[in-house]
Amino acid sequence: MPTLDDVARAAGVSKSTASRALSRPALVAPETVLRVRESAERLGFVPNRAATALARGRTGVVAVVVPTLENAFFTPIIGGAQRRAAESGLQLTVVVNALRHDADLEALTQLSAQVDGFLLTAPLGSESRTLAACQLKPTVLVDREIPGVSSVIADTATAFAAVARHFIRRGHRRIALVGGSNRSWQNEQRTEAVSAATRGLAELAILDPMPPTFAAGTEVAPAIADRDVTAVIPYATALALGIIFALGARGISVPDDMAITIERQVATALGLTTMPTIDVDGPELGRTAMSTLHDLMTRDTAETAARLRLPVPVLYPAGG
Amino acid sequence: MPTLDDVARAAGVSKSTASRALSRPALVAPETVLRVRESAERLGFVPNRAATALARGRTGVVAVVVPTLENAFFTPIIGGAQRRAAESGLQLTVVVNALRHDADLEALTQLSAQVDGFLLTAPLGSESRTLAACQLKPTVLVDREIPGVSSVIADTATAFAAVARHFIRRGHRRIALVGGSNRSWQNEQRTEAVSAATRGLAELAILDPMPPTFAAGTEVAPAIADRDVTAVIPYATALALGIIFALGARGISVPDDMAITIERQVATALGLTTMPTIDVDGPELGRTAMSTLHDLMTRDTAETAARLRLPVPVLYPAGG
DNA sequence: ACCGGTTGCGCAACCGGTTGCGGTGACAGT
DNA sequence: ACTGTCACCGCAACCGGTTGCGCAACCGGT
């Protein structure tokens, strides 16, 4: 592996000039910059990240912490974050904390020595512990808000409320909401939003917290059937699919006997053209979060925390 | 952040002794080791990875390259690999190459300066280019075999063949195989295995390559119906679900009118107790691959490449 | 008391970039 | 010709661990 010294020698300049030519070209004569770049190119020079990290005191790595990889909700976020990180020359390390919300702080403290920033997606820990973790390094929260910390959330609460209102307009008077972990901030937001939207207009059955899996959907389906509701709002796609399947097995047909809301793309595939659909843009969420984090890391002045709320579009069936 | 110097001072030893006490304790008097460890603990010392990497010439980071995160097949692998990596004190960086099989080599060359090893999952590139990439750093292939390179694969080919034989025993004479990208090594293996298993016993309809999505399943379903087959072997769970849905919409019921094989857990959730199921252990696949890679990285002698083939259990319905 | 062999530790060089500071030469202004 | 400015560049120190080498103390054996 060629080093900066080799490049410098080849270009006939000192190591320091070579360094500046490559990383801060404004400080070097244009013609020299060209020579250095050409040598670097020719030798196939790739700067050693460890050395750069050591000298600069920054690693160029950001950690993305996800509760689990089994929920398909998180992977698009990771993908979007990774693309955005690559654009800024940042590496991305993925950490799965297996929903152990209470072990976050120690692990993150260890990690904080190795990375420049954190992207915490849907952290479940208590507000105080999470806040402590956020103070280790520049941090952006995804799908959770904590006062004083930058965050980016997909506004599914508003979308769910809109769906609930749509169902009410369509005459539904008993609606079920199937949520996730009750330690989840988003889940709380959604429950409140839907409760507010239905209050006085329809009865809302809030079912037990369910993991976002197909199996969980089949498991909760009987409860839905028993509650005698006519519309369901499940919080995750796989869960929704499980529900549709299991209801079908009990002779309850979607959409004929039961209304449901589901991710746009899946609805199209299923031919569920009469149901309202929502459309969370996971990659965009990840990209925005990473972008915000990058700002946070480069900006020296610790200005006020950004609180972004990405709208989640709701599409109503053509019939209005 | 406390440095090794601080720890050494606190323990009343030199920096070099402190370093050895922490990383090669056999070289230091036991009582000294204790003192150093105690000081490190008390100060909350966390070794600076960049410095270690620079001094040792190894980064302690391995890259996991996946074609995409949208296929639920890969995420459990990443999870398993991450857990195993953490056990060995390795960080894991996830790289998504967006199926651009021809851009692998350049990107990996860049990356190779920053990591100690590669886990290439299901690389689609040509054998020669992939082989070139494998020579940059210790590499373990997942779900692809190339002579001379260590690899770990889930033996779905054998499992699929077993399923095909099961279908034949049950009297099926027209079977459809729905595969993925025809650039995929695994896909090729599976196609061959199933072809061999059915040869002379049943007609095999090999359908067009499909992405592993629900939507693709609904798309390919008409072709399945038209081919007049009685059993389907789809290569991905989401795809299978899409097929079941869409067949159902056309009045073809699974399992009454059509046999299908599907992932164990989903089959249970669906109540498909009469269908053979397969059970790929993604986390185990990732863990084994990372384990193999770790061996490769620590072993100095470049011995013969490991070629692991994890069996994929097939469970037949209770009725035999 | 002398000696070869351990054992335990410190000195200082090194990994490969980055950057503060000082030196050099060109050029304009008087 | 003399000096002040400024753009450009090199020297060397530094980031924080790791490790080869050498020194000192201590061991049992003759």
From TrEMBL, chains A, B:
Domain HTH lacI-type: 2-56
Pfam families, A to Z: LacI, Peripla_BP_1
SMART domains in the cross-refs: HTH_LACI (SM00354)
PROSITE patterns registered for this protein in UniProt: HTH_LACI_1, HTH_LACI_2
Listed CDD domains: HTH_LacI, PBP1_LacI_sugar_binding-like
Gene Ontology terms, MF aspect: DNA-binding transcription factor activity; transcription cis-regulatory region binding
UniProt keywords, alphabetically: DNA-binding, Transcription, Transcription regulation
Name the record gives this protein: LacI family transcriptional regulator
Taxonomic lineage from the root: Bacteria, Bacillati, Actinomycetota, Actinomycetes, Kitasatosporales
